[in-house]
Amino acid sequence: MTDVFGGAEIDRRQAREFVQLCPAYVARETDGAVICAAHPSLTGINHGTGSSGSTTWDGAFRSRLYQSSPKAEDGQVPDSDKPILTRVKSNWAKAGETITMNWREGVFVADRPATGIIGSMERRTCEEVFLELLDQVAAENQPVSSNSRAGNYAPKLFVKRPRREGFGKLDFEGAMQRLFDAGKIFNVDYGRKHDKRTRIARRL
């Protein structure tokens, strides 16, 4: 936030004026939301609040999230690839809730099912994982089916794979249907002449 705010952090008037004339103005004009990122003070880090400067910063925003590193236990080195996101303040939700995240392919991903906008991003990720697993079983010559009553039903088998990225059966069922709707996968026949079966194939 220091890249756009050149005032004194401890000045209440300046803090309030900046929030109303900059991020709040942009949010009103775009009918959207603006996220301001700022580094906490040493006191904010030590107290676990992530605060910095005047308390007006906390009061001026509708909500505030704090990303921190897990604490070391029993002399062990904490895993920096699994930071914790805490909802410190919110006008419309319960404060104090936390989300553990995982570093995955250059981004932090919530270590739990997400909803809303984040949920839609996770669904796209689930589709990518579905396609990766489909390629994997195809390379292993283990065809999978879109028939929920089949023993090789794709979502049921994919949840047993170690590289399922934490997704469950319902996630894969939704991803599979979206991939069919998008024309990225389709069913093809295989097997002997008198024992025809169908398997899912990827459209190249």
Quick take:
With 204 residues, the protein is α+β, with helices and mostly antiparallel strands. The protein is 35% helix and 18% strand. The strands form two sheets. Strands 1-2-3-4 form a four-stranded antiparallel sheet, with no helix packed on it. The chain has a two-stranded antiparallel ribbon with strand order 5-6.
Low-pLDDT regions: none
Order of secondary-structure elements: HHHHEEEEHHHEE
Query: Using DSSP, what is the number of strands?
Result: 6
Largest sheet: 4 strands, antiparallel
Backbone structural class:
alpha+beta
State the separation between the terminal residues, measured CA to CA.
Answer: 45 Å
Q: Give the overall average pLDDT.
A: 83
Task: Estimate what percentage of residues fall within beta strands.
Answer: 15-25%
Layout of strands and helices, then pairs:
Blueprint: H1 12-21, H2 23-30, H3 42-47, H4 56-60, E1 63-68, E2 84-90, E3 98-104, E4 107-110, H5 116-139, H6 154-158, H7 169-181, E5 185-190, E6 197-202
